[in-house]
């Protein structure tokens, strides 16, 4: 099994602190850290322009940058990077502020040894990776939802999904628009929507039967208040019901 290797950019102007950080990181054999060092933000940005780093460890108070502006400068020029801030003993409040501006974490100098440094860095690294994966999946879901929404609008239909186990129904935005329901009806219980329909109980029975027997079918219904008529084409599958609604 190959050993994980990670590239670290250390931005630190204090020679003693820089030596200690390199020493601690150099002691690790799993993962192996490859450290590049700059004494100021300008040099750090130049290194970032030439190479990609898995982790950036940066002091806050540098010759050309001070406090929160340090983290702002790094992440404004190179967003999407994992930054862990190094603070002095009296700067813990500022360290917390840098997290609000995008740093993954902060470490207080003098309060950690090599073991704590490695574990803190790796925890931040794994959490950062997980968050990026979650963001990626969320983006994909948003794109799929956008495609589905566009298709429904072009076909002038709506989509519903019903989970009887939790008595929850999901109605797409276009379903709400077609039937004339408010946004509060996007999700909720099945009965809440059926109460607005003529023949709602009959439709409810068909839905339950379709789920229990994995049936496909259709049903025509209309709203009580407007008498607008609709058709639902449905399929019971894997204990749920999926349906397409279209106006008549």
Structural commentary:
It contains eight helices and twelve strands. With 248 residues, the protein is an alpha/beta fold. It folds into two domains: 5-136, Rossmann fold (3-Layer(aba) Sandwich), CATH 3.40.50.2300; 156-247, Beta-Lactamase, CATH 3.30.450.20. The strands form two sheets. Strands 8-7-6-12-11-10-9 form a seven-stranded antiparallel sheet. It has a five-stranded parallel sheet with strand order 2-1-3-4-5, with helices on both faces. A hairpin with a 4-residue loop joins β6 (158-163) and β7. α1 (15-27) packs across α5. The model has no long low-confidence stretch (mean pLDDT 89).
Structural class call reads: alpha/beta
Proportion of helical residues: 40-55%
Distance between the termini: 63 Å
The overall pLDDT, averaged over residues, is 89
Considering the chains and any ligands shown, give keywords for the structure.
248 residues; alpha/beta; Rossmann fold; Beta-Lactamase; 2 domains; seven-stranded antiparallel beta sheet; five-stranded parallel beta sheet; 44% helix
Summed up:
By secondary structure, this protein is α/β, with parallel strands linked by helices.
Helix/strand layout:
Layout lengths: L4 E7 L3 H13 L4 E7 L2 H10 L4 E5 L8 H10 L5 E5 L4 H9 L4 E4 L5 H42 L2 E6 L4 E4 L1 H7 L7 E2 L1 H5 L2 E2 L1 H14 L2 E8 L5 E9 L2 E8 L1
Parallel strand pairs: 1-2, 1-3, 3-4, 4-5
Antiparallel strand pairs: 6-7, 6-12, 7-8, 9-10, 10-11, 11-12
